[in-house]
Fold each of these.
Amino acid sequence: MVFEGMALAGYATGAKLGILYLREEYRYLEKQLETVLLGMRGKGLLGRNIAGKEGFDYDIRIQFGAGAYVCGEESALIESCEGKRGEPRNRPPFPVQVGYLDKPTVINNVESLCSVVKILEKGAEWYKSMGTKETSGTKLLSISGDVRYPGVFEVEWGITVQEALEMSGAMNVKAVQVGGPSGRLIGPNEFHRTICYEDLPTGGAFIVIGEGRKILDVVKNFMDFFIDESCGSCAPCRYLTVILRNKLNKIMEGKGVASDLDDLVNWGKQMKIANRCGLGQSAANPILSSIENFRYEYEAKIEKGKDFDTRFDLNKAIQESSRAVGRFPQA
Ligand code: SF4
């Protein structure tokens, strides 16, 4: 269905070449996908004069990336397709103006391309009969975490978070990270909300966090992920993620003070405006939304009534440098 959607996109735009880009982790799909492409070429659904239509020439090749999260960003994906390091480009120009090999390029995700095929087969009215007023159709939810039935579920837009949890066999849920690491961490008071663009939007990832987990552990895990996955070209994405994670560590070790929480919020907000692509812009989201919804877990770790680190030991902190230079503070 993805390949059919790509051929339709080729027909609509006059493109002759489509690329299916997969991260290296999906190499195991390669043989199966190549077999499907061969079959389509054999049936005249790819290649020259597709389906007997003069001048409708289109073919598809598969390209594997090295496995970077940021290559889900369209311009980084194009860089990777060109054989370069996967780093987002400055925009404008946008890919539809200057894309793959400097040619106008349309980039869509697998889900959108499949939806096009379904809409052409069954009609726009059929598609619009599902979902909500402003978010038509269906959505693939990739549900993972503390659930009995992890997997990918196709649902109509507009189901509630609670319904998605019941569908996946989740019990005793403390929080849900809606939209993956870059998304938003919500608590039970928001489980009545509906998954759609006019309420709670998501790209599809839905990570369930059970009662037994500590929110700060979960947030630290996401911050470690962003530190690993930053391509490094924007300074705040490269170093502020580390500073935020270190401050989080400080709080987790019971050494935090009230101003650390303010710093996390104020510096986290800067990430939204100081970075070039969505990865860096949303890297502080787990911190910001967990402080918004689970502030009590942070406050339980923070020294009450102190606005400075009372346990900081200056003598201990400078021991190593004192030894290196052979000079020690006078008593
Ligand atoms: S925000 Fe981060 S991942 Fe995105 S371009 Fe900048 S450094 Fe790279």
Amino acid sequence: MTGVSYWLNSTGDPPLAPSPPVNADVVVLGAGIAGITTAYLLKQAGLTVTVIEAGDRLAAGVTGHTTAKVTSQHGAIYSSLTSRFGQDTARAYGAGQQLAIDWIETEAAAIGADADWSRRDSYAYAERPSSVEGLRREAGAAADAGLPASFTTETGLPFDVAGAVRFTNQAQFHPRKWLLELATRIPGDGGTIVTGIRALGLTEGDPCVVVTTAGPVRARHVVVATHYPIFDRGLYFARLEPRRDLVVAGYPAAAGPDGMYISTEDRHSVRTAPAGDGRSLLLAGGEPHRVGARTSVARHYDALRTWARERLSLDEPAYRWLAHDLTTVDALPYVGGFHRRTRNVWVATGFGHWGMTNGTLAGTLLRDLITGVENPLAGVLDPQRLTVRQSATEFVKANAYVATRFVGDRVDALAARRGAESVPAGRGRIVTDGPRAIAAYRDDDGALHCVSARCTHLGCLVVFNDAERTWDCPCHASRFDTDGRVLAGPAVRPLSPADPPD
Ligand SMILES: Cc1cc2nc3c(=O)[nH]c(=O)nc-3n(C[C@H](O)[C@H](O)[C@H](O)COP(=O)(O)OP(=O)(O)OC[C@H]3O[C@@H](n4cnc5c(N)ncnc54)[C@H](O)[C@@H]3O)c2cc1C
Ligand code: FES
């Protein structure tokens, strides 16, 4: 079983001329679905655009590790939005998602893109009878919000459910095939994409100056589409919650179900994808947990494999992967001005595990905001909206957790007083050198790799991920490889080198 996602394994990379980032009307940081879609649309609108991507491959962050259902059904969000903010907000949110689906389909047809696009019904299901009332409420709220929703007990899944909400005529696709089609149309005529270059800092002004690992680049507008915003202004680190999901995928003997599925009880997720060789790939997702939780990620994979075998007859997965997404304190994404005083720095984040539509929607909204076109979603998704302040309970809960980990993990590490000899081959542990906490990993050949355990974002102690062999930060989900290199932000700098303790 490979640890590379199917989307990354089944696609190559477009030839990009190696070039430094160049000054432009707009600099877009991050080449996931939000960044690539925004850049593509801004170029279409006649602006010069430079996309700066830290990784070596495009659409290889969370977007390369998604399940890529393109649907306005986001769990049971419409009953929650209606009761918290009223039907107008639920309607506006739902209409935006449906528009995103239609835009991808229309644009793909217009440019002749082949992205395995396929219209399907989507189901949010529950197995416990006690959950049925909630599903009926969700079906009603979604239908009232103008969406193609109804309650059903027929899903096509190979196991019984107590009930489900069905959204008809939704879609699925291959996210990387789609985004590479868009990305290859960005370079030229004032458009540039660079990979392997990390944004490190930003000085706001007119123009703004982005500091990158390849030098400064200037732009009238900067779009921060780095998944977790990398700049510590606007308090994003205090109002986004990272949650990870795992995926296994393979080729079961019998064809998988026709629809797209998500459990409202345990978040198990199911869809199929054409593998290009006549076979159909079955994807099963689940085992949600907070990044850096005190838990074994390898055991979560075992549990997901068991579930996929027992429920879907997927005996031997060919792929496994994981990623985390970010949820805002009021469950609506943040798309708009980066902070209260800015007029030319923009952000798109907090897609709540539904970034295929929300990331696309973010592109259309940011294009309109930057080019001065009115958009009905500007107020609903404004990162400074009033509802963010109304969600004080969620805000306090998220930050209490971070505070506990910031202090508690240090106390635990110092109390354990572990030395490097306690680290077995293939494992990582936090060991101590006097008052210093060191992230020590012993590779399969017995060599020790030591780096500071202090996350370079805001200083929480990293935790070893025993399935991926990475160091993950429990506070805001930065990830580092065992030599300290950044794999995922908000951190932009590697973990400091450290000597093994004596
Ligand atoms: C397991 C899983 C399943 C999911 N399934 C679905 C689904 O079925 N349907 C759905 O709608 N959504 C789904 N989602 C959510 C969706 O995948 C995400 O919301 C979406 O991909 C996020 O896109 P993004 O562009 O914001 O982030 P990313 O794709 O992570 O892009 C951000 C980019 O910024 C780059 N970057 C970071 N820091 C820097 C820096 N300092 N300088 C330059 N570049 C930088 C990163 O390398 C990355 O390429 C799922 C998520 C997960 C985890
Ligand atoms: S990601 Fe914020 S402290 Fe590590």
